[in-house]
Please model this.
Amino acid sequence: MMLERGLAPLRAARLSALAAAGGMALLFGTSQAFADTVVKWLHLETVPAHLKMWEDIAAKYESEHPGVDIQLQFLENEAFKAKLPTLLQSDDAPHFFYSWGGGVLKQQSETGALMDLTEAMRADGAAWEKSYNPAAVKGLTFNDRIYAVPFKMGTISFFYNKALFQKAGVKAEDIKTWDDFLKAVKTLKDAGIAPIAGGGGDKWPLHFYWSYLVMRNGGQQVFEDAKNNEGEGFLHPAIIKAGEQLAELGTLEPFQGGYLGATWPQTLGLFGDGKAAMILSFEHTEATQRANSGDGKGLAPENIGRFPFPVVEGGAGNATDTLGGLNGWAVTKNAPPEALDFVRYLTNAENERLMASIGMLLPVAVGAEDGVTNPLLRAAADQLAASTWHQNYFDQDLGPSVGRVVNDAAVEIVSGQMSAEEGARMIQDARELE
Model:
């Protein structure tokens, strides 16, 4: 779901230039003539240190497997989502690509575009499958068939600028409930500080607010019923109340000016440049705000704090219920055996520990947990360890059709263009049409 800016130079033999806007075909390089097997890897990552890590891992694999060329390819976030369905049915299909799991992965598996990984991962007493956190494997499994190799898990939470909080007299430890949060927003505005960096241009960043409010008000059962089109569905009173609370936040004008047109990289950059006090974001925000800031340095790590999404008083959800990612690598049906072997290598405990050590991810490989040393990532890992319900992003879990409507409704509700009930009805109608 995320895009970061700041693509570092990579070895030209591996990284092909890709168009961020329409019209230009995906170029997967021309080094086939120089290697027995080319493995085409499509991704979204752009943080320089993270790309360097992947390059190093790929280079080591190539040195141990002569004749294999791992080609890293890049599409920006929105282009990735728009073009991937066509790519998967074309001769330019990547051999493996980044996946958010959920209904989108399920739909891709139903088209026949993906390789069923079940037998491979359950061979030899399921040694490969058992090398990952069971919850991660389960989230990428449909009808007892595995369709992606686990890569990482994460959770969405608030990050804040400690200096701006101090200037306004706001204490993060006092933000326990939704009412506390609204009070903090008002206090920051009164101090002349933009309370929240918001990315309305990409829409999905704002659906985090609606999703968490649904979770806090309704709890797991209400969401599961709505997801499965049971009971009152998305017209449940708790879900409508969540929309009303989102609308109330919107009336406070909590985001920076022009937020409805802001992309996610711009939003991260705004926070990194110290122009907003908070951002509701991913576990590795410390790295991404730095990569997207004007000076490439962003906020110093010691100036960034973190707190979980607040509870709603009287709601059925728990403070320990988390919303966040469950990401994996989906392998396409015509991928060579070397692609599957490399994905297994990429996600083994040794490499996941290395990636965790630079603040790149929260590992899912068993035994790689000790690689998480970054304090903010450690806090996210601890939060996930104590999670009573970890929910995949709503727009991913509900599938592409309903997910798009969720994102649209969240933006229109918070911006005052639609009532909470109208938004709930729009989502429910989309669910019933599936």
Notes: The CA atoms of residues 290 and 296 lie 6 Å apart. The two ends are 22 Å apart (CA to CA).
